[in-house]
Amino acid sequence: MSNCIFCDIVNGNCDAAFVHRDDSVSVFMDIQPVNAGHMLIIPNTHAAFLADLEPNTGAKMFRVAQKMAEALRASGLKCEGVNLFLADGEAAMQEVFHVHLHVFPRFEGDGFGLTFADTYLTKPPWSELEGAAKMISTAIERSALADEDERQR
Amino acid sequence: MSNCIFCDIVNGNCDAAFVHRDDSVSVFMDIQPVNAGHMLIIPNTHAAFLADLEPNTGAKMFRVAQKMAEALRASGLKCEGVNLFLADGEAAMQEVFHVHLHVFPRFEGDGFGLTFADTYLTKPPWSELEGAAKMISTAIERSALADEDERQR
Question: Which residues in B lie closer than 8 A to residue A26 (C-beta atoms)?
Answer without folding.
Answer: none
